[in-house]
Amino acid sequence: MTTTVERAQYSDRVPIRSIILRPDGGSGLAGQHARVGGWVKTGRKADKDAFAFLELNDGSCAGNLQIIVEADKGDLGQLVLTGACLQVDGVLKLPPDGKKQKVELQVEKVIHVGVVDASKYPLPKTRLPLELLRDYVHLRARTNTMGAVARIRDELSYATKRFFHERGFRYVNTPNITTSDCEGAGEMFQVTTLISEAEKLEKNLIKNPPPSEVDVESAKLIIKQRGNDVAQLKSAKASKQEIGIAVAELQKAKENVLKMEERSKLQPGIPQKDGKIDYSQDFFARQAFLTVSGQLQLESYACALSTVYTFGPTFRAEKSHTSRHLAEFWMVEPEMAFAELEHDMDCAEDYVKFMCQWLLDHCMEDMKFFADKIDKSCIDRITMSAKTPFARITYTEAVELLTDAVKNGKKFENHVEWGIDLASEHERYLTEVKFQKPVIVYNYPKEIKAFYMRLNDDSKTVAAMDVLVPKVGELIGGSQREERYDVMLSRMKEMGLPIEPYEWYLDLRRYGTVKHCGFGLGFERMVQFATGLDNIKDCMPFPRSAGRADL
Questions:
Q1: Which residues belong to any copy of the Aminoacyl-transfer RNA synthetases class-II family profile domain (predicted)?
Q2: Most exposed among 76, 308, 309, 334, judged by the fewest C-beta atoms under 10 Å?
Q3: How far apart are CA 394 and CA 226, in angstroms?
Q4: In Å, how far are 187, 250, 397, 538 from 243, measured between CA atoms?
Q5: Which 8-state DSSP code applies to residue 88?
Q6: In this predicted model, what pLDDT tens digit does every residue of 369-406 receive, in sequence order?
Q7: CA–CA separation, 136 and 83 (whole Å)
């Protein structure tokens, strides 16, 4: 452990975490000079306004550094306001005995003050409800809760990349704009320029109305006149220069008529063909959407590089206002060739365990914050998930367990029978009551799963699996992919999917097909699982949902 302060690599400041998160709480740095910067959490004047105590936070950790500023160093009235930004030079010193903090900073010079209007600043010293904070999405990262969420997300993101890199997976950037519906649900955001182009055209036609038939006919008469002029010059054996000028005028008249005829055909509104929207005139010359998953495209790389993954934003145009839904969310999606459902479940379990252990090893300060303020069981939950083997049961066994629970008096809002898609309450019963740990359910009815999942030998179920965890329910959904061309084609027809947009996907089965599998983890759900937050909108820096797209 060093006895000197550690500056940020690209700044003169010393990150607060490098002071207060030392094993000694920073006491070993007493006597050292440091420049720190951050935002005032709380401040108060003392000793008849002779000096002020400020709690400063720079976001590098959950904890604050107490700084002491004397009145001759700056305007204490501005410095004590919650939300003010300060950068100061000072000396670290030991506080008086009995104080909670192990070290504090005696300010020698105030370098910078970012003032705040206390009458308008929306974040008070006291805690605001998380729902209200969503109205100030541009400022809420300054709160203790959202700052901790940001650090947890960052660590989980790094852990994800490390997990897959250490196991030989290659990272692939899949497109955000797609012409395929991976889920087959149709709840996709459409990407089009037809509307903006139609609005632009309408304004243009109002400002510059299209030519009438009379205008076009008059322009054609000019062509005839220019043609006669050329003929007369040739008959009179005029010079090449004179004839050339006349020919150029004739050509110009012809081009003008072509433009007028083209413009006279313009109609306001979105282009139509055979009574339907003409997407051939759209930007991509076909219908395009924001992706709901990178899986289909990722499979093409798995069938070449063997083990790959993607990690990026996905979108779902589901008009839901529940605490479980976002319109934009991040997915971690690995794909593995030469692998089957058992391998898929092994990888998913190892990945969740790795992330849980990572949080325990690297994020304990923030996890303790969530345990204290949000969910007392969150540390126990991820500890159990990191250390305990997951239960594995078939879908049929899961339904039997739920049915037995109903017989014994358990009441569910959603009816339980074979063939249903398990609801969140069913998933949480299995993980929180029956097994009291994560559960992997596999071999689901084919009717409730996507077309690309491998049909089992019973022709009733598919090789699908979901990882269910306490607090959240479904955390991961995955499957062995259908590698048999004829079976996949039959499934697509059975589900009424158009074949043409998926011809490229079928090519992966036509040319060098291979058994392969993969899964998708909802990243915000992993954050929710770790932190215990009730609403998934608080697990995303800038949440998008039905009716809300702030910033």
A1: 308-541
A2: 76
A3: 84
A4: 64, 10, 92, 76
A5: E
A6: 999 999 999 999 999 999 999 999 999 999 999 999 99
A7: 14
